[in-house]
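**Fold tokens**
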Amino acid sequence: MRLWTYIVRRKYIQNFSTQQRRKMSRIYAISDIHVDHTENFEWIKQLSDDLYRNDALIVAGDVTDNMPLLEKTLTCLKNKFKSVFYVPGNHELWIRGDPGRSNTSDSLQKFNKILDMCESIGVYTEPKRIQVQEDEEVMVVPLFSWYSTPEDDPEDSLYVRGQADEDVKKMNSMWMDNHFCKWPKMDTTKSKYFANLNRESVREYDIPVVSFSHFLPRKDLILACKEDDEAVEKERKMLSLPEKRLERQGAVIGFNFTRFAGCNILETQIRTLKSRVHVHGHQHRNRDREMLGVRYVSHCLGYKRERELGIMWGLSDWKGPKQIWPLNDTPNS
């Protein structure tokens, strides 16, 4: 009789805890989901239809350059999460292939068309308050951005000169944005153009701020630290891969990613916002570290070959997007 009473009480407590958790909104993040790759779109579709019903999702860019597929993917995520926030990445602004993929003549027109589409399906691209607990709100602030190359603006660029002489012409040829982005005449750099779009959003708020961008805001987020290498090793073990330290976490030899990584102006905006957490993507290398009072998180899905190397650490733990708020929760069971 006592055992039966214990079982009933325990089940009641577990059910009560689950109900309380469902009342609380959590904020999750993912980026670089590249759903043009079938296995990535399948990964998105298999996310739980129930687990995230009361939660918000940040999608930090690089979904697809295919407009119909972009709408289909964001709608799919909107059906799984209570709220979805999004900023375009560089891939979204490509103009290529079948005109139906873009239906615009240049990348700025496409950017604006994407924002219109997001508004029509209820995906947020502007700041919004999220009620995370009964007595706590968080302001989620999307930041539009682009990178500065050292030729564009050496002070704004995150460029770090490599040890060997660099073949700039070769690297520019390797970087697909230079082939697929079509820019109209602009009277400023692309980085400053997109930063100016954030003018009304970038200010102090009376509640904690979670901001996000596609591009990186700091040089010191580019290279892996000891903890990142250890996290990759843990991921590799979870995938039953042999122990092997990946030099520069698998970066392409002869290509300096820092030329196209991000911009310093983003960091200025993050500090003005006094963000508690900032989410970014773009580099296909995951990060989670605190610097000068801000927690910087990158949780990329990336490409299948990168996941199979264990580079996308954290995906095996979370089995989906990563929770970034509340700050102290553990991966979903």
In short: Confidence is low (pLDDT under 50) at residues 11-20. DSSP finds eleven helices and ten strands in the chain. The beta strands are 27-30, 56-59, 83-86, 128-133, 136-142, 209-212, 277-279, 287-291, 294-298, 322-325.
